[in-house]
């Protein structure tokens, strides 16, 4: 059913070099060009039948030009020669209209990624439409088969995509890589007298052969869904809170946002001035690793062409690094950490690659056993996070813990605290780290948070 | 809506002829396809932003392409391309037709250009949409100066002026071709205040399907700067928010995000056709107190959520969702209206040619009531008064929704007293509006900042609300 193939696509090397040359002719003193193209096939099924089929191939290029210390960025999907000529001219005009920024510029020569090692982020497997339909149908079928209380479904989805990135600049850097992604998910709905509940489960991998089986994904989706039936509110009070790995990952995501050089130099982060300080207990170590083989955040070079790396962000509880690109690094008086992230046609920002908390030795069941009364959170909704102060207040659902066991499902409650305080009062971390995205965490227990309910 | 001659101009821009379109439609609209359409889009967006007193970033993005869609029963086949040759159109048409298990159609589907609607909700002057970068820079510099002048404790000002100019043309297997030009602007200001190591943030923004003159009128942009600065300074003295169930008074305007989350999404037809919404069996039933009447209205001039026609070419309309507390109906696109046998409301929207049409809200608001806003505050002994919010979210299936206050005050003995830190409010959609006991006569629409996300697609929307009293809702603060 599968066959392999090379990505048969135009060679954009000349296009990139040509744009740099044209920018130079317009008087630009420096420039970089990023070209991305790719194809996707997305299949959604629902109640045993195809619901939606989406297929596309797309391309886009982004150009950033400098006129001394003025700069601007632009992107287009129209690659026709006439349009590109106009596009370069307009981008240059835009740059001349903004104010000089003394810190702006490309990274200095000598720092760029010298080679593009194979990081196992591209799998050439090409799935047929019918094969993806079959995988999605099997996942949904497995969800229904796992429990008779599954009465409806938001459907199953199987997506495959592959793409290429090319980055070139006027300092002579040229790099490119290809990546791929395969994902499978299902979202069953359970119902009983108490109402309906929905949850989902998913697998995502750069290699098709490593994707979990549709049966495993369907069964886990159902397990997560039916256990929510009959959820109720709990009284307002201060209790220990356990975050399951999925929601613990969101806490890491907030941390990575606060560690972005841009948030820091703008004064918009709750971690300003904390470099070198103890921000969590000694057993907490957090890495960012842009070279993790097969990782969903893995890439050989960052959005400026600098090599990615593995670095400790928090080591034994001490904050040891920020996430920086060249610009935000200069603003903070630090070198880039190779964390420039880049949308096509935007100037770089700084963000994580594969960002994770090193697991502890305690199993999640053992952590649960330490809680007499508390909350086990499995879902969070809303945007109640203030990155400037760290104040945190979100809608939550999960389970009430009594005497070390999950007693009953809960919903329509909030949990609130402050992220600085939450990290400082992590009590235990689990042994259950699994990568299911760019950001991954084991189970985390926080000493105490305010739960608002009845 | 553009005139006939503009339509051919737009087609020329897309580089396709009527004949190309009719052939592609014919290829996809085979007998077991119920409906098909081609959606052409050209979109140019520009952003200029300022921080640390320097307008240092300018970006521009140009995108164009075509999305081809076929629906058969409940199935949708969809393909898109950023190349607009007749060859690419035909490849996309063949891909979209895959769901019909049929060989390609051969008879072209004739389409006629539908004339412009009498109304144009957002007549614009292209020159005013494509603001010279220099003018944007001037505006942003003035905002920075105004915010810092407001209070020396303002330590950083971040502001961005974004515009979008979208030309769309949709050709349908119903034989209609209709186009629209949709301008969109937004100005957003964020201030950071600092005092004795206490740092706080304040934001304000607004816009709509309008041009630069909207922000220049009465120096509205300076008012945006002062509002953002005021909120940041106010939050310097904010105390911990309370936790637990209490009465809450919502101010007018943007707090209407309550309606968007609590009931709006739950009334989108797709969720109800699939019976995955907590509102699925509640049409004709009471879901709100009788002081609540709620509408979705895509026909308000210049509003961020308004459209002359939706992305299937259906003129937008005003749909009553809840009338005096009784659930009246859903908002629909063509697919769901057909499958459910209910009226088409003109709510079929898509983020771009790269995404499928879904039933989406436009401007969703509660009609004014009869209470005096001051009496509403006075009626609360102890509770919360919330006037500004960040985002919100809802779980359609169990109906639980949240929205997060960014400016709120304690009400103590019927009086507004101290500002409190941000807190998330959580409730249950089918239940919360039954607890609305007072509705003010002061309906206000939001400033034009809302973006709604669904299935990964973002579209601009509006909300509105008069001052209302909710007898009880859970407030997620930190103070017992």
3D architecture notes:
- The complex is a heterodimer of chains A (454) and B (480).
- With 454 residues, chain A is α+β, with helices and mostly antiparallel strands.
- Chain A has 2 domains: 3-222, PmbA/TldD superfamily (PmbA/TldD fold); 231-454, no CATH class.
- Chain A is built from 9 helices and 22 strands.
- In chain A, the strands form 5 sheets. In chain A, strands 2, 3, 4, 6, 7, 8 and 9 form a 7-stranded antiparallel β-sheet that branches. Chain A has a 5-stranded mixed beta barrel with strand order 10-17-18-19-22. In chain A, strands 13-12-11-16-21 form a 5-stranded mixed β-sheet, with helices on one face.
- In chain A, strand 18 (391-402) and strand 19 form a beta hairpin.
- In chain A, 54% of the residues are buried.
- Residues 1-8 of chain A have low confidence and may be disordered.
- Chain B is α+β, with helices and mostly antiparallel strands and 480 residues long.
- Helices cover 22% and strands 40% of the residues of chain B.
- Chain B contains 12 helices and 23 strands.
- Chain B has helices at residues 4-14, 18-28, 86-96, 126-129, 133-150, 212-216, 220-236, 257-264, 269-273, 334-340, 373-378, 429-432; strands at residues 35-51, 54-72, 75-81, 112-113, 154-172, 176-195, 198-208, 243-250, 294-297, 318-323, 326-327, 348-349, 358-359, 363-366, 382-394, 400-412, 415-420, 423-428, 436-439, 444-445, 450-454, 457-465, 468-476.
- In chain B, a hairpin with a 2-residue loop joins strand 1 (35-51) and strand 2 (54-72).
- In chain B, helix 2 packs parallel to helix 3 (86-96) and helix 5 packs parallel to helix 7.
- The longest helix of chain B is centred in the first third of the chain and has 18 residues, at 133-150.
- Chain B is globular and about 75 Å long.
- Mean pLDDT of chain B is 92; it is low at 1-8.
- The chains are: A alpha+beta (454), B alpha+beta (480).
